Amino acid sequence: MSHGGHETEIKLAVRDAKAARRVLRAAGFRVFKRRVFEANTVFDTPGRKLRKSGTLLRVREAGGVVTLTYKGRAQVSRHKRREELELTVSKAKPLAAILERLGFLPVFRYEKYRTELQRPGRRGVATVDETPLGVYIELEGTPPWIDRTARQLGFAEKDYITASYGRLYLDWCARKAVQPGNMVFWTGL
Q: CB of 122 within 8 A of CB of 141?
């Protein structure tokens, strides 16, 4: 969700999706994009050139929409700001094949359920992201809007998370002494 080719955001850890929706509704947020399952595939070169440079190339499938996203190197202070370029395409498989022909390989897959909320007539977006690691509210907008909204939701600056879901997953694997793979929901086969 870029604004003018850039995104500025933070994440806030919450107990569960019900609590996240409750606090957002109390602050005047309303659903503008219903809960949808997202399958995200990160592509990189065999030598992980993009990861080493702090950039990202992702294909997201969500609610029948396929989005190719490039994210530039993050500038992190209290908030994370980075260039974000996106385009939608009609099919994921041919896009993945094109990327692979250009030397990019799928290197990480992560899943989540996302609900997008806004305050009617105001800028800034809040999402409720349900991931295999837990639930997060993501606030995206201008830094003053993010800070003001976080305070209204009952959070302080010490609660801000600027790490990507990939980084959160790697940190979780390190804490649990688990070999990293993909951050996907277990189906219980």
A: no
Cβ 30 vs Cβ 106: under 8 Å = no
Residue with tokens 């994440």: 11
Give dist(CA 96, CA 82) in Å, integer: 24
Closest CA to 69 of 37, 105, 103, 95: 95
Contact 147, 10 (CB under 8 A): no
Angle (CA) 180-186-189 rounded to 5° is 120
- Closest by Cα among 30, 105, 96, 21 to 61: 96
Instruction: Give the closest residue to 67 by CA, choosing from 103, 91, 32, 35.
Output: 91
Q: What is the pLDDT of residues 145-178, one digit of tens each?
A: 999 999 999 999 999 999 999 999 999 999 999 9
- Rg for the chain (alpha carbons), in Å? 17
